[in-house]
Design goal:
The chain is of the alpha+beta class. It has four domains: 237 residues, von Willebrand factor, type A domain (Rossmann fold), CATH 3.40.50.410; 119 residues, no CATH class; 190 residues, Cysteine proteinases (Cathepsin B, Chain A, Alpha-Beta Complex), CATH 3.90.70.10; 72 residues, no CATH class. The protein is built from 24 helices and 26 strands. The strands form seven sheets. Strands 1, 4, 5, 9, 10, 11 and 14 form a seven-stranded mixed sheet that branches. Helix 5 crosses helix 8 and helix 15 packs antiparallel against helix 16. The longest helix has 21 residues.
């Protein structure tokens, strides 16, 4: 496994006090700060499940606010330190330390002078430093105060107990004396001096981080969602005195940059959870700087909001027009990395009902108003970034388009057409690839060349109407087709299907077309490159659409590998080439034979085993029942990979999500 480092940057500023709904199925309200712990847990536990001993993780909380803490720091060590109060009285560790040094009288002073958090933190800084411990303990007076009848004697004289008002005065005076004492001042100095070192961002092995969280939460495997929620709240409560400050996102990003810069790991991922409202400048300037960009960090951002969202499970490539430049959403969107829709994390989100942009790429940015969305997004995307594109191939019918292209390149190069046979080349390529998506196809898989020769024998070498040929030939191969526009074509590419395309150009335009790709083989052809006044007859040509991105469409030509980029060329959009038409080649389940459906089932079991073995933590995810529309943990479904039983409505259905299939396979073979 490759070396990796994952940073989790969480906003703990004042805006995180706002509440929002915990889950779609619950009316519980939680602070947005609750998402801090939940997100850290989800990312760390998922990464730990990969059992990669060369993977490290660090957390960066920004928005800390207290006299003794810096505004940016690693929140895990602080949580680990303060969590001791769950096991015993918070004062006991420091009292034990004082007793070991024969300063038993310090107990009264410790309890009266320090808060529980101060006692825990001070003990952490003193326990391994004998000289500093003795210095601190020697400053504690032998008796912090001596009580007498009717009052108390201290260095300022006698103060009587007379009525509630005077008791309040006495209490205030006692607090003032404590805070002005040498012992208390030194305690605060030690905490302030040592706290930055405790909170310095330090990558630790992900397995160690997972163990820390397990120890912090102590949530059993059978704990209910409410129990887990309550335990997370209790874990978060002790650090609340140190959070809800400003939003120094720029300072946080600079610290994170220094961590990544000092690490040698190849895979670098940063997850940012915030409302995007920085108080120390524009964080986009840090991310856009040469120093940050040179680190090749993949940035995933999550915008937390209390607002209603029409469809939070939606990825974007372009920002919403309604977002102002200083909108927190826009800042987080601009900082996020982009990824091709065919890449594993993005295609995995599709299985969970997420919508993708038709640009062919998505920004790793999400808006969330519930923990469920944050949970699903970070679990899927962060864990599978930089995985090979075929690491989690969708079962059977969803072969990635990247494989299509590799298959084209490896098994049959863009062929040299004979005279007017481009239509046959394009149709044969699309047919061949569509049929390869049928497992155990009855009659086998006709080769590209055999399909091509059959079509040429029937329609000739002097050209033919592509749409007419499709109409007459599709049935022979149990395939279907439909005409579509660029929008529909991009949608088909998102669903991993290649398309036949045809267009027309005048002779002079063809000359410019050839000249362009001779000089700029990997360039993008624009409409202006073909502009002019032309007369005469247009000549049609057929190609295969194999890919798209925000800037272009990619086609496979039939003029051999010497043309353009190894036989492939790119144009800006459907308007560049005249009379452009797209034909989507596909099949439906009704078109499959009984043997093919059985082969599909067998392959589904095999691929489910592969996923379950490779990613055992898939059972942590949630899936939606298509009958009742409710989501449940995949581990709660019953049945097998061919017939699942919903734990909510008890309806049965055919599972299609990789997560659910893997979980069901694991259950069946335990």
């Amino acid at each position: 496994m490759e070396e990796a480092i994952v940073g989790i940057m969480v906003d703990v500023s004042g805006s995180m006090r706002d509440t929002y709904r915990m889950h779609d199925s619950s009316d519980a309200k939680v602070e947005r700060s609750h998402a801090i712990i939940t997100t850290i847990i989800n990312i760390v536990k998922r990464e730990a499940s990969r059992h990669n001993r060369r993977e490290f993780v660090f957390t960066c909380a920004f928005g800390l606010e207290a006299e003794e803490v810096p505004p940016v720091g690693d929140i895990l060590p602080l949580l680990e330190c303060l969590s001791q109060r769950r096991r015993e009285n918070a004062y006991q560790p420091l009292i034990r330390l004082a007793r070991r040094h024969d300063v038993a009288h310090a107990e009264r002073w410790i309890r009266d002078s320090l808060t529980e958090n101060e006692a825990l933190i001070l003990e952490q800084f003193l326990r391994d430093n004998r000289a500093l411990t003795l210095q601190m303990l020697n400053l504690i007076p032998g008796s912090s105060k001596t009580f007498v009848v009717g009052g108390v004697v201290d260095g300022a004289g006698y103060v009587p107990f007379v009525g509630g008002f005077f008791n309040r005065v006495l209490k205030q005076k006692e607090q003032s004396l404590v805070k002005n004492s040498d012992a208390y001042r030194r305690a605060k100095e030690i905490i302030k001096e040592k706290m930055p070192n405790l909170l310095t961002l330090k990558p630790i092995p992900v397995q160690k981080a997972s163990e820390i969280l397990d120890d912090l939460l102590a949530i059993g495997p059978d704990a209910s969602a409410k129990t887990a929620h309550d335990q997370i709240r209790k874990t978060l409560d002790p650090i609340k005195p140190y959070i809800f400050g400003g939003t120094p996102m720029c300072k946080a990003l600079q610290d994170v940059q220094n961590v990544f810069d000092s690490c040698s790991q190849h895979r670098k991922v940063l997850f940012i959870l915030s409302d995007g409202q920085s108080t120390d400048g524009d964080p986009r300037d840090i991310v856009k700087s040469y120093g940050f960009r040179s680190l090749s960090v993949t940035i995933v951002t999550c915008y937390l909001t209390v607002d209603y969202l029409y469809n939070p499970k939606q990825l974007l490539y372009e920002p919403d027009d309604s977002w102002a430049d200083d909108d927190g959403r826009r800042a987080l969107f601009d900082m996020s990395s982009s990824m091709k829709n065919s890449h594993t994390p993005i295609s995995y989100l599709v299985d969970h009902g997420w919508e993708l942009p038709l640009s062919g790429e998505s920004r790793l940015f999400v808006q969330a108003n519930s923990l469920e969305v944050v949970d699903e997004f970070c679990r899927i995307v962060v864990s599978h970034i930089n995985q090979p594109c075929d690491a989690l191939l969708d079962i059977i019918e969803k072969v990635p388009l990247a494989d299509y292209i590799d298959h084209i390149k490896n098994q049959f190069e863009p062929a040299e057409q004979e005279r007017g046979t481009c239509y046959a080349n394009a149709i044969a390529a699309a047919f061949h690839l569509a049929m390869h998506r049928i497992v155990g196809r009855f009659g086998g898989y006709p080769s590209f060349e055999s399909i091509r020769l059959v079509i040429i024998a029937q329609y000739g070498i002097y050209g033919a109407n592509t749409e007419r040929v499709l109409n007459e030939v599709c049935n022979e191969y149990r395939l279907r087709f439909c005409k579509t526009d660029e929008r529909g074509a991009r949608k088909a590419i998102n669903e991993r299907r290649a398309l036949v395309a045809r267009f027309s150009l005048y002779k002079e335009q063809w000359d410019k077309f050839h000249a362009f790709y001779q000089t700029t083989r990997q360039g993008i052809l624009h409409k202006s490159d073909l502009q002019g006044s032309y007369t005469g007859r247009k000549v049609r040509h057929a190609v295969v659409l194999t890919g798209c991105d925000p800037d272009s469409l990619t086609f496979m030509n039939s003029w051999g590998t010497h043309f353009a980029d190894g036989g492939f060329f790119r144009v800006e959009d459907e308007n560049v080439l005249d009379e452009m038409e797209f034909f989507d080649i596909y099949w439906k389940e009704d078109d499959l034979t009984l043997s093919e459906r059985e082969a599909y089932k067998r392959e589904a079991v095999r691929r489910s085993k592969e996923l379950a073995d490779k990613f055992p933590s898939l059972e942590d995810l949630h899936c939606m029942c298509p009958k009742c529309g409710k989501r449940s943990p995949v581990s709660s479904f019953r049945g097998d990979v061919l017939n699942a039983l919903c734990p909510k409505c008890y309806s049965t259905f055919k599972p299609t999500s990789n997560d659910l299939l893997s979980a069901l396979y694991s259950k069946k073979h335990q």
